[in-house]
């Protein structure tokens, strides 16, 4: 198993999001600390600070942090380009660091600071159960609309249904995508031909994209990380 992630020096919605302090340390270190002792970890980054910390911090020893290709940085900075270079960066990582096409790859994001290694290891088992890719999700079993009241998703507005009878709506949270090098190259995607949606709990599913997310994560940290839950 190899774990791969990418860390940006700056972010559009929260300035230097990955370096915001959560529980006394930068956000990006939480997940890397959690997984570093279980697997080889690789970080594609445009941040010299991340590279320096991986060489200096004893808890990050063994992590391979390498400089992002300028062509990927240019893609991210091109205002006319609406697509992320994520797939290209993943392909670049696989080409450079993964020889065995059947090795399990866990693509994760440091914006999920509460993700547990035990959850990742359990999710990996589904690759041996007929699935060629596994993706983390959270779910909501409630009345849902798409865009407006005219487009109900999972219920009939002309009758009153019990929420427990509604179909679940699954939401991608980006905590992890699990696949092999072979699956990725065959599909040129983090998804395969048969994907398993692995549901994680609301705490592990916290993904920090906005300042509200960060504020909420700080509250959760006090309970979960300090044992006050």
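^ structure tokens above, recovered residues below v
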């Amino acid at each position: 198993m190899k774990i791969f992630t990418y860390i940006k020096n700056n972010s559009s919605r929260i300035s230097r999001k990955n370096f915001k302090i959560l529980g006394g340390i930068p956000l990006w270190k939480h997940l890397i600390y959690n997984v570093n002792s279980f697997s080889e970890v690789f970080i594609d980054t445009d941040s010299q600070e991340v590279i320096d910390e991986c060489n200096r911090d004893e808890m990050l020893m063994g992590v391979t942090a390498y400089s992002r290709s300028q062509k990927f940085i240019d893609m991210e900075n091109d205002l006319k380009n609406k697509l992320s270079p994520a797939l290209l960066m993943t392909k670049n990582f696989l080409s450079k660091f993964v020889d065995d096409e059947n090795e399990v790859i866990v693509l994760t994001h440091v914006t999920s600071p509460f993700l547990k290694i035990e959850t990742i290891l359990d999710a990996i088992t589904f690759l041996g159960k007929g699935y060629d890719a596994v993706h983390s999700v959270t779910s909501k079993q409630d009345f849902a609309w798409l865009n407006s009241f005219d487009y109900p998703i999972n219920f009939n507005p002309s009758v009153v249904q019990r929420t427990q009878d509604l179909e679940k709506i699954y939401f991608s949270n980006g905590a992890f995508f699990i696949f092999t090098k072979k699956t990725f190259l065959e599909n040129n995607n983090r998804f395969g031909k048969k994907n398993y949606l692995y549901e994680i709990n609301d705490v592990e599913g916290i993904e920090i994209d906005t300042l509200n997310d960060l504020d909420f994560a700080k509250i959760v940290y006090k309970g979960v990380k300090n044992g006050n839950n």
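The longest helix spans residues 211-224.
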